[in-house]
Amino acid sequence: MLKWLRFSAVVTVAVIVLVAAVVPVGAAEDKALPQWQIRQWDDSPVRLELADKAAVQQLLAAVPLAAFHREDLAPNGPGWVIETRVTPGEAVALRQAGYHPVALPDLDKAGRQAMEQAWQAGTRPEKSDTAALNYYPTHAEIGTLLANLAATYPAICRTFSWGQSVQGRELWGLVISNDVNNTTAEPEVLLSSSMHGDEVVGMVLLVDLAHHLTTNYGQPGYADLTNLVDSTEIHLMPLHNPDGYVAGTRNNANGRDLNRNFQLPTGTHPSVELENLNYMAYAEAHHFVVSGNGHGGALVVNYPWDHTYTFAPDDLAMIQLSLEYSTTNLPMFNGSFTDGITNGAAWYRVDGGLQDWVYDQTGCINVTIEQSHIKWPHHSTLTGFWDDNRDSFLNFIDAAHSGVNGAVTDSADGSPLAATVTVTGNVKTVSTDPAHGDYYKLLDTGTYELTFSAEGYHSQTIFGVSTTWGTPTVLDVQLASLATPVPDAGQLVTAVAAWPNPFNPGTKISLTVPKAGPAALAIYDMRGQLVRSLLSADLESGVHPVVWDGRNDRGAALPSGVYFARAQTVAGKATTKLLLVK
CATH number, domain at 528? Predict the structure, then answer.
């Protein structure tokens, strides 16, 4: 069930058109470029079962497999399994190294060749207007499908192009919103797919999603979908790598893996491919809250970081966001990965991935959504993928409203501000959209301390901001200009926050006491049992630091897990969640 959301007042401005509208099918660029090519196959799929991650590394060191990628690796009970493609020479090298590859049916080849035959014959399976796609559209047909939706539903969708590929193919896109020709104070969500040209299920699913949102908007029985479109600006980019799609290959026309071609937070691994440069320009021109990219070869939602084993600052929110997708996709949720999600580096560390760049450079939480074990499944199976992913898409988009959101404005005239929002203990800030002053910070269930700052204004810190995942906490803030006296801090409330969190072995808890008098602070476990009394005393009003060393009242070290710090003062109660990691 999607949640109905309350928002601050909306201010509309004329939309800035970044790039030209979609070029209609039949334009010069489509006539000059082939829509498909026959792929030549020089490898075949095999399966290898290995004892652990170390054994995976040993195999790849002994026999570097050119086609091996992270999506070919999956947990297999206590061990790991590789299902990848190998050349005849690699198969011989594996056997000579003592490995025993097991041949698998070549479902990717069968799926691609079936569609090549349909493209060559110019035929399509019979499909009703309301059903999901049961064929793979050509690049030009994607443009036609999106353009037809925009022409049929101009009040809620419009086409756009976010650039061109290396070979000059248009990168089609569609925006869906209730006021699509104007920007409003609402979260922006971006869904793209198929930056690997041979991982194509997600491309079809995004065309299905565009059709589902537009055709059912405002219809009886679709109140939740209508509310979602009314409260969110949804950007869909079905085909990130059209040149690879035409050729049936992973890489783009320059032979580059586009998901290894984004700059790392360290500043290395620069982006140079045209498709990625166009994506980056589009992402930086918007204020996306969440985004995802469709892939194939596995069934899992993979969240940052990819390039380091260190947890991202928003790790807990990323887990919740990933679960929003996987929980309603039963094949994914019940698959090889626990609950259908994984941290990227914990799966297999890679450099230059899109999701790390997006999170690092724009603040948007981006995840990789692996939607099919088979990268190019037979077209007859596509409608089943839509059934598996439909609710997952809707829940994922709706999750952009979780955590804390609101507007930051000038206290004197109410004008929107370009402000920064900082959560104490979280180094990853978010910024407002300066056109409307709206901000969105995804936060897991807990109690937080938020600071709002803008150039030329007094900063303001709000204590005791409580959130519950799935239910938005709306917090509008007015900042006073530096030209005015320091604003009244207002009435403090009882609050508790901790840093670091997650922690090991200890954490510093900040207890806010709004009124002098008796105060208590204690730690409870997930069952609600008291494990440590940290404080019970008369305190003056203000913020009081208390250190917890991760031990119980008997001095014994507690195991890893979730705990709760609960505070009580004469003014009220507050609770925050703590994660002890060993």
Answer: 2.60.40.4070
Pair of tokens at residue 304? 């940052």
Same domain, yes or no, for 52 and 138? no
Boundaries of domain holding 250: 13-36+124-401
> Contact, 45 vs 103, CB < 8 A?
yes
Annotated active-site residue 370? The verdict is yes
For residue range 4-56, what is the model confidence (pLDDT) as tens digits? 332 222 222 222 223 333 334 333 345 579 999 999 999 999 999 999 999 99
- Last-in-domain residue among 453, 479, 505: 479
Query: Total domain count for the chain?
Result: 4
Nearest to 421 by CA among 456, 457, 447, 460: 460
pTM of the predicted structure, to 2 decimals: 0.80
d(CA 532, CA 429): 32
**DSSP code for 486:** P
Catalytic residue among 186, 273, 275, 370: 370
Question: Angle of helix 201-216 relative to helix 223-231, nearest 10 degrees?
Answer: 100
**Which pLDDT tens digit goes with each residue over 157-211?**
999 999 999 999 999 999 999 999 988 999 999 999 999 999 999 999 999 999 9
